[in-house]
């Protein structure tokens, strides 16, 4: 028996060594597989749910907010020398003239020269039509339309205080106001009003030179003192 064990001892030793190597290899492979799975775990959760649609959602929200700022309906208050004063519904592209027609038109004593008929209407606007021989002091909001309406805020902010008030609106000014312009006397003031009533509001300041008696020299004197707004 001793001879047998001595003879085959190295076979047993080799077998044990092979078994040990196989066990070590097995555990080594399992460990590597666990490490690989842990390594790729973050990449599977890197993309947050809904990240691909966040930009679209934001754009949609902004678009909805912009639409909410546009008024669904416009209402204008027509006062003074019109046949049926009151609050009237209007469209975005309508003018002061259109709203006065909705109010039945001018009364016989209305001073049409003090109203800018071509002005586009706005929501909450007040159209004040004065009587002849009377002057009105309208409220200050930019939407007010009358002969002495306040200048737009952009004009008032682009110079020294009071500069905007000094300009004369050649589309709404009466004869007395036009005569305050340099070189404009009673006859030229009447000519401006007659031209305006016949041809409608001035579209640009240079149109004044189409009025009889107003040439380049006269226009050059008054150009900085007039406005169409």
UniProtKB/TrEMBL annotation:
Q: Where is this region: Disordered?
A: 36-63, 132-162
- Please give the InterPro entries that the UniProt record associates with this protein: Competence_ComEA_HhH, Endo/Exo/Phosphatase_dom_1, Hlx-hairpin-Hlx_DNA-bd_motif, RuvA_2-like, Soluble_ligand-bd
Q: Which GO terms describe its molecular function?
A: DNA binding
Entry keywords, A to Z: Membrane, Transmembrane, Transmembrane helix
List the transmembrane segments. 12-28
In this chain the Helix-hairpin-helix DNA-binding motif class domain maps to: 176-195, 206-225
Q: Name one GO cellular component term.
A: type II protein secretion system complex
Q: Where is the composition biased (Polar residues)?
A: 36-46
Query: One matching Pfam family, short form?
Result: SLBB
Q: Does the keyword Lipid metabolism apply?
A: no
GO biological process terms on file: DNA repair; protein secretion by the type II secretion system
Which SUPFAM superfamilies does the record associate with it?
A: RuvA domain 2-like
Task: Tell me the SMART domains matching this sequence.
Answer: HhH1
Feature: compositional bias, Low complexity: 50-63
The protein's name = Competence protein ComE
UniProt organism field: Weizmannia acidilactici
This protein's encoding gene: comEA
């Amino acid at each position: 028996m001793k001879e047998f064990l001595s003879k085959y001892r190295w076979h047993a030793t080799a077998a044990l060594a092979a078994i040990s190597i196989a066990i070590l290899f097995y555990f080594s492979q399992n460990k590597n597989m666990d490490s690989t799975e842990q390594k790729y775990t973050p990449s599977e959760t890197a993309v947050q749910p809904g990240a691909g649609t966040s930009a679209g959602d934001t754009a949609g929200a902004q678009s909805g907010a912009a639409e909410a700022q546009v008024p669904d309906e416009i209402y204008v208050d027509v006062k003074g020398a019109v046949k049926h004063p009151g609050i009237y519904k209007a469209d975005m592209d309508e003018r002061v003239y259109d709203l006065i027609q909705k109010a039945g038109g001018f009364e016989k004593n209305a001073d049409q020269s003090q109203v800018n008929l071509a002005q586009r209407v706005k929501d909450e606007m007040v159209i004040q039509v004065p009587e002849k021989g009377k002057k009105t002091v309208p409220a200050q909001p930019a939407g007010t339309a009358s002969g002495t309406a306040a200048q737009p805020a952009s004009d008032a902010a682009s110079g020294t205080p009071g500069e905007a008030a000094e300009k004369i609106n050649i589309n709404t000014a009466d004869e007395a106001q036009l005569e305050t312009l340099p070189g404009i006397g009673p006859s030229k003031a009447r000519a401006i009003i007659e031209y305006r009533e016949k041809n409608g509001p001035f579209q640009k300041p240079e149109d004044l030179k189409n009025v009889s008696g107003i040439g380049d020299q006269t226009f050059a004197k008054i150009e900085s003192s007039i406005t169409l707004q």
